[in-house]
Specification:
Elements: E1 7-11, E2 32-33, E3 36-37, H1 38-48, E4 53-58, H2 63-68, H3 73-81, H4 85-95, E5 99-104, H5 111-117, H6 119-122, E6 127-130, E7 134-137, H7 142-153, E8 157-162, E9 172-180, E10 183-191, E11 202-210, H8 213-219, H9 231-241, E12 245-248, E13 252-255, H10 259-272, H11 277-296
Helix pairs in contact: 5-9, 8-9
Length: about 300
Amino acid sequence: MHPTVRKAVFPLAGHGTRFLPMTKSSPKEMLPVIDKPVVQYVVEEAVAAGIEQMVMVTGRGKRAIEDHFDISYELEDVLQKKNKTAVLTELRRITNLAQILYLRQKEALGLGHAVLCAELAVGDEPFAVALGDEILDGPKSGLAQLMEVYREFGAPVIGMQRVPLSEVSHYGIVAGTEIRKGLYRVDGLVEKPRIEDAPSDFAIIGRYLLTPDVFGILRTQAPGVGGEIQLTDALKTLAKNRPVYALEIEGDRFDTGDKMGFLKATVRFALNRPDLSGEFFHFLRETLERETLRQSAGEGVHAVRPVQG
């Protein structure tokens, strides 16, 4: 029987420069997808996987994240007096989602360093890592999928998905031996390779299930790409010492730290909502039809691209 995974680490100290000027005063993880901040979607995914404790590694300017998951007595009192029962119930549900601990990463020295900051909080236990600006939408929680592999092998598991070869230089890329469909034993990892150097088109995404022996590697890990302590480099070292697996995560991934990823997530989750989908679908269809007519008449400023499935 392998130890139960009870904790998830959320590295949240990044500056969100791709969303400036908005993120000058608001954390990128608090950008709203419909009426919930991005980070709440990720916390709910962890809860759905059975994780009880969230360790949030934050930095300057991230106080709004703490406030969101905290009790707001004044607001709850106002809602109570106005008989806004449904909204009040939802706010209390958010507050009680999980036990949350906040730590500071005083310098943004890389994802590996952010994970290392959580060592004392995690202790000698297996733990998940979830990037707070990546939302997964699928039939099962992404972390729950990793958990199933961990329960089988008792070893670290990295979440991955295929990406176009033109994008491999933006990711850590997995080289591995296939165990069964969608599951690989890791032979090597390459951080942001050139196309010609990429060992595959499997990109590491922001979901990991790790064992505590990774901390010992991170403590002495030299800076890598970008002068930062890369988690990918530590996992590459770990894979030389013990089996490490990589699982192709089922579901669609939205990188909401990227403008296009954020827009796609907003459209997807709006269409998923029974209270919004009908009217929003008609709006999208009418907008596309109107823009297509304008384009065909030579009036459009931007070409209309086909909607990707």
